[in-house]
Structures are given as structure tokens and as C-alpha cells.
Please model this.
Amino acid sequence: MAILNFGSLNIDCVCAVEHIVQPGQTIDSTSFTRFPGGKGMNQSLALARAGGTVYHAGMIGSDGEFLRALLLESGADCTWLKTVPGSSGTAFIQVDQKGQNSIVLVGGANRANTPEYCDQVLSGFGNQDMLLLQNEINQLPYLVDRAYEKSIPIALNPSPMNEAVLACDLSKIFLFIMNEDEGCRITGETQPERILERMHTLYPQAQVVLTLGSQGSVYSGNGQRIHQKAYPVTAVDTTGAGDTFTGYLLAGMARGDSMEQCMKEAAMASAIAVTRQGAASSIPTRAEVLAALQEA
Model:
């Protein structure tokens, strides 16, 4: 199964800080670094490093050719990736001493997708493939509708959660991969079990993976409920951990692995990622993940 990831590509500008800046406050950064990033790109890198067959579609500006180069180097197919005038998407990220982050996004080229471009990309895929979407690009509802018309299964990571997600016909989604906040925004529930119950009431055809931070994650679907523990590590930078989880999960599903194995590899991959700086640069290879699982 090939996975088409129609997603964002960003230049991450990361400031290391003692604590996340508060309203009206000015603080010093202890370091500043530029990394490749964007939820879409991070997930494509994770898919490729996990051994998946991934095609990345989206837009970069003239300053983003190094993002294309990294995708190609990792094994992702960039046939559909397009360069447009202007700047690539940019993320301004604060990372505190505990590894927690705060992010401001500037859409840039990620907001330049057109219906015509979406149709061109989707023409190369069918019902034996999978479409992966996040919410850092424009045309999200259009992509959901057109992919559904072509019977392409859609996996949605509804992040960042806003009105664009709720404008989509979510009954067309095959797989939701989301955290508690996103689950709450969609269902109105706050407890994990209630979120899952409500999701299956609203979207009975869908499978759901709910990530719970230090409490691990839960898969619910096809009559199964699988609880996966989080592997304990000392976090350095949590940026991109969820994207790493998503990429590894889908790569395993595309291989036909059991859901238990998919969840284990996704959990370990994200655990390794948070011990490293950056987003794209922190994503491990599958060999690293399998070795770590043997030792766990």
C-alpha cells in the first residue's frame, strides 16, 4: 500500500528558553536553531524511515529546496511536491528546559494549494492506497471530499485543531489519529473512554487512535480496544513526537502488521524522538526502533 501524504513543509525556528514566554514578558533564548519541519514533512520522514512507501505532496517556497532534499534522502517520493514563489511555511518554536514546546505557525507556501493541484495529485492514486492529511495546509475539506469520491481511505491527524477540521465531512474519514484535546474538540467529551465512545457513535465506520502523552495511547476499532504504554525516557524536545508516532503507525498498517505491533513501534519511535533535539532530525530509523523494543 502506498501512502500519499498531502501535507505541510516548514522551516522550524527553535528557541531554547528557561520557560515558555508569558503574555507581556520578554525573555532571553539560550540558543537558536533552524530545523526542517512541518507536520506533513515530519510524518513523511517517519513513514519513510519506518520503511513505508510514501509520496509527499504540498508546496514549498524558493527557500525550501533543502526540505525536498531531506525527503528524497530519507526515501520519500517527491514527484508531486511543487515549488511556488514566496516563502515556505515557518514555525516559531519555544522549547523549555523540560522539553515542552509552544509553537506559532506562518502558513506561507502551505496555504497556496489549489483545487486544480489537488485534483492533479489525487489522479495518481486509488482505493489500494491511503491519503494522510493534517491541518497545516489549505484545501482540507476539498481533499477529503475528492479522495472519498475516489474511494481512497483517508487517515486524518486533526492538528492543529480549528474550524477547518470541523468544516470537513468527518464521516468520510477511515482513521483518526488524535490527542485528548483534539478528541475533546470533536466530541465534547473530556475523558479518554468517553471520547472513544462518542467517536464511535458519531463515526461508527472509523478507527480511532487516541494518544495520551505519558499515559500511552489507545486504539479502538474493528471490535478491538488496544492500550499501549508509553516507554519512559527523559524528554529533551517533544516537537515532532506525535508526527513520529503517526508515521510509524501508518507504515506498520501499510505493511499489514498487527495493530499491537503497529502501536508498539509507534510508541517506541516517539519515545526515541523526544530524547533528541528538533522535529525532523529526531525521527529514528526502524532498525533503531526494533533494537530498542528488544531491549525494553
In short: The mean pLDDT is 95. Residues 241-255 form the longest helix (15 residues).
